[in-house]
Amino acid sequence: MFLNSSPLPRFVVSVQAEDHEPLAPTMVMLALCESVLAGGAEGLRLANLDLIRQVKQKYPKLPIIGLHKPYPLPTHPKEVVYITRRLEDALALAEAGADIVALDATPRPREASLAEIVTAVKDAFPNVKIMGDVDSIESAHFAVDAGVDILSSTLNGYTIETQDAPTDSPNFAFLEDLVKTFPTLPVYLEGRVWDVEDVHRGLALGAYGVVIGSAITRPHQITARFKEGFSSTFKNLTQSD
Fold it and tell me: Is the pTM value of this prediction over 0.85?
């Protein structure tokens, strides 16, 4: 559970934006990174090579989880691998300064096998750890057999096989199964973490750490949740009249 003789971060904030979003420019993303670090984030999950380089230069000891996503995202994202699917992307992340490289660790088809990618990254960058983003216990077994060092619940609910998972909260049953099935590996809770109670519950179930993204760094999604609250409240008030 250690990264270059230092503990893995327990409180990680995901700072990401798609190319069309107002936050997408690297200088804006860097300001957002600095803001969450000022708030106490212990590590960052980033999907931009330039941003990884700049953050690492400014904060050389800060743990960074790096991943690659294509933009625009695939038309049917639940059906395909798109989180760091290629070996060259994984190597580029490590070269840019990512301490942990996150990969889609499901058994779905990709250009090079998951085991080949994991082995190649570890051979080229022995100090880099591999995080397996999984959707199920079956995927987690596949990921561990391929050599990942860390598991994350990232993809639960975001694949065809798990599309019936909760949509507005973490799948705590899945997290509990992951922790119990793989007691020697650090397991992160990620996905649909919206409030402090989610964090408390995840840690109580044995998660090593928690990755929080949209609830902190995606203003349009935060605003949309409040907007939905306004709309539903006014609708109920109108009906009661």
Answer: yes
